[in-house]
Structure formats: C-alpha cells, structure tokens
C-alpha cells in the first residue's frame, strides 16, 4: 500500500511503501536508523540486520543524506517519538543517490544557509515554519469566508502610491511610470463599495533600506475592507481574526510548534478581546519607563513597541495616532483633528506591529484636501475620489503582514525564515 508519512496512522501494523528522502541517518552495528521525510512529515525508519536481506541492510548503511528512495516497512506505534509512529523497514529501493549534499547536520552560518535556501527548506525546522505559514493562510480564508467576505485581487502594478513613492519600486509601463504595489488597500476600498466586505491576499513590495529582523522587501499581506464599518467595528474584526488564526495553529500544528520549541502556553492566551492603549497614553508610559527619546508626534520604533507589548500578555492595540505621521486617507477623530481613527496591533514577545488599520475618510472634500496637503496628484487619485461622490459611506479596513505573524506564532526570531525565498536588502538569490 503506497501512502505518505502524514497518513501512516491509518496503517498501524500494516506494511506500506512511502516515497521519501533521507534527512539523516545513524547506525550502530546491527541496526540502522533512517530519518525519512516526504514533504508531509518526518518519520524514523528502523532497519534491523537480522530482519532484512543483507542487500537492504547494506543499502541502509551506505545511503547518503538527501538520497531519494521508495521505502517499504511496517507501521508501528512509537510512544517516544513526537510524531507517534515509526517504520520497521523491510525494503529500500534507491531512486537517486545524493552526493556531497552541502547542508550537513553540523552548524552552518546564516549567509551559507540563505545561499542554499532552496535546500535549507528541506530541514525539519523550516518544514515546520512553512506548515504553520500554510495553516495561517488556510485559517485566513476560512475565517473571512465564514464571515461573509468576498476575495478580491487588486493589481500588483499601479500608477500611484497609497502612501507616497519614496519606498516604491518604479518600473516603466510602456510609456508610463508604474510602481510595484505596496498595498492593495485603495482598490479594496473600491471593491468594498461594490461587494460590502472584501479581503485580498497577495504580494506587496517596499523599497525600504532596512536590515532589521522584522523587515522584508517582498512580503504578503491580508487586506480586508468593510463598507458601513466604523473604527470600533474594525477593531473587533481584527481581534477575532487574529484569535481565530492563533487557535487554528494550536489545533492543527501542534507537532510543528513542538519541533520549533514554541511556548504554546503564551499562544493559548490569545483570545479576543485585546487590550487597547491610546497613542497619548503610550507616549506617557514610555517617558515614565525612561524612553526620553520619544515625544508626542514621533512614530514608534521597535524598542518602543516592545516595551509597550511587554506590559500585556495579548496583542495590544495602540490607537489614535497623530494625523501628521499617518497616511492621507485616515478619518480624523470626531473630537480631535490632531489624531486619526487608526490602530496598530502590536504582537507580544517583541515581534512588533502585525496589523495597521483605520477608518477611511468618506467625505469627498476632506479627502481632496488631504491629497493636496500630501502633495499627491489629484488626477492620479481621481478614481479614488469618485468613490466619495457616488454613495459614499463610512468604511474601515486593515492590513496584516503574513510573515511577521508567522514569525510571532511560530516563535522564530527573523522574518527571513517565514517566507520560502526571502527578498532582503542584499539578497535576490536564489
């Protein structure tokens, strides 16, 4: 019976055949242990010399790391294994023998591993991170489909920039200037006026010359927009969504979290509602904590966000930022014109902002004024302004950065491990 490692629980005490690679191996005299992987998971294959043909045992001893094989054996329950099963090997058919595989069980430097990212993905740790990433994506679609959202795909090539052009990759679009999208938000607002509640999931690009562990040049974002939703409605959707995703990972990726050594007790606490702190109070809090470098009107850096997050055991919303440090499209607070109805959601444990969101300006004249104040082209934003001319309504939305969320939930330190092939300031290969 041909099967996969993921499905072996269905075949306890039965003989199966699995197409696999040799992740690692060790032998001690009359027994060989093969660490097998097939993309669905990892399992140990045990080859006992007295129980197999001599040729099979010799193959088990000589087979090299990352060689591909068809392995046949009897599935057994193994209480010592985190996976819970092992394979008593009865036969091995070599498909392709790997020679001098560069990533050995010894320690390797980060740059070496990044140069070999196409192979590093095969490791148990990277496999676990990618499985958690996949579960977050699956749960995202499930959540928004359950909540009545429609998936809409905004363009990647745009003629204007939601937040200015300084951090955009420019390209030529025949005889026009174009940019790689840094956000699908403006287009999602148009979609929300047609479909009510929408979300997108796609790549975004930031030409930001940052080398921190939180930044990528190319990353993926989930961007919902909701007609008739105000600022408070928006925060409820965000906390329910994040809670849903975290609990889905806990339920469906327990083995992967174990592989990564993640403290799941901290994740168990991630359930809505989330705490909130205003920007005003955050500034006071930081000043009291000895951060003399921050004053009202400044944006927060990583140390500031971390200090605030450490006061809570859940993600925390920082709300009502100054108008001057936020994009042009954010709705002013009804009682103050110096702050806007926005919030950043800061993840615990030093992972920083994972969501930025706001209520959007729905008044045509105010939005036109903001566009002019930000020295943006009214012609380029004519279509966006028209959304406020024909049946404008209060509406809100947010964007969640997938890679930062994967890093937080999986507990890995750097976002470069949370995307299959990271694009960094100094890296376009492989």
Automatic annotation (TrEMBL):
One of its GO terms (biological process) is asparaginyl-tRNA aminoacylation. Residues 130-430 form the Aminoacyl-transfer RNA synthetases class-II family profile domain. GO terms for cellular component: cytoplasm. It catalyses: tRNA(Asn) + L-asparagine + ATP = L-asparaginyl-tRNA(Asn) + AMP + diphosphate + H(+). It comes from the Bacteria. It is found in: Cytoplasm. Keywords: Aminoacyl-tRNA synthetase, ATP-binding, Cytoplasm, Ligase, Nucleotide-binding, Protein biosynthesis. This is Asparagine--tRNA ligase. The lineage of its organism: Bacteria, Bacillati, Bacillota, Bacilli, Bacillales.
């Amino acid at each position: 019976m041909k099967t996969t490692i993921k499905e072996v629980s269905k075949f306890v005490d039965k003989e199966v055949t699995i197409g696999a690679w040799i992740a690692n191996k060790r032998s001690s005299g009359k027994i060989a242990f093969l660490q097998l992987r097939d993309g669905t998971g990892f399992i140990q294959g045990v080859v006992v010399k007295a129980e197999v043909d001599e040729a099979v045992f010799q193959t088990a001893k000589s087979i090299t790391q990352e060689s591909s094989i068809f392995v046949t054996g009897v599935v057994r329950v193994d209480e010592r294994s985190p996976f819970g099963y092992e394979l008593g090997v009865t036969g091995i058919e070599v498909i392709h023998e790997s020679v001098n595989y560069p990533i050995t069980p010894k320690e390797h430097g980060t740059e070496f591993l990044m140069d070999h990212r196409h192979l590093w993905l095969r490791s148990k740790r990277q496999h676990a991170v990618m499985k958690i990433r996949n579960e977050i994506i699956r749960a995202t679609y499930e959540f928004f489909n359950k909540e009545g959202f429609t998936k809409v795909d905004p363009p990647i090539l745009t003629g204007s920039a939601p937040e200015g052009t300084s951090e955009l990759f420019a390209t030529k679009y025949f005889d026009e200037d174009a940019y790689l999208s840094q956000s699908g938000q403006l287009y999602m607002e148009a979609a929300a006026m047609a479909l009510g509640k929408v979300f997108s999931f796609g790549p975004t690009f930031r030409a930001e010359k940052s080398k921190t562990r939180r930044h990528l040049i190319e990353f993926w974002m989930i961007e919902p927009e909701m007609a008739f939703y105000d600022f408070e409605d928006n925060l409820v959707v965000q906390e329910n969504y994040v809670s849903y995703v975290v609990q889905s990972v806990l339920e469906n990726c327990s083995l992967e979290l174990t592989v990564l050594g993640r403290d799941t007790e901290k994740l168990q606490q991630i359930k809505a509602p989330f705490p909130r702190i205003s920007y005003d109070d955050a500034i006071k809090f930081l000043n009291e904590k000895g951060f003399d470098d921050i004053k009202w009107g400044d944006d927060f850096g990583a140390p500031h966000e971390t200090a605030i997050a450490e006061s809570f055991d859940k993600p925390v919303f920082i709300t009502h930022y100054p108008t001057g440090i936020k994009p042009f499209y954010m709705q002013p607070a009804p009682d103050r014109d110096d702050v806007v109805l926005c919030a950043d959601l800061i993840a615990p444990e030093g992972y920083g902002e994972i969501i930025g969101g706001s209520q959007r300006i729905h008044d045509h004249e105010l939005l036109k004024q903001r566009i002019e104040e930000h020295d943006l082209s009214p012609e380029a934003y004519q279509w966006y302004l028209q959304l406020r001319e024909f049946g404008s309504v209060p509406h809100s939305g947010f964007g969640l950065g997938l890679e930062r969320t994967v890093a937080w939930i999986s507990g890995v330190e750097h976002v470069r491990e949370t995307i299959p092939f990271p694009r960094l300031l100094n890296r376009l290969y492989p």
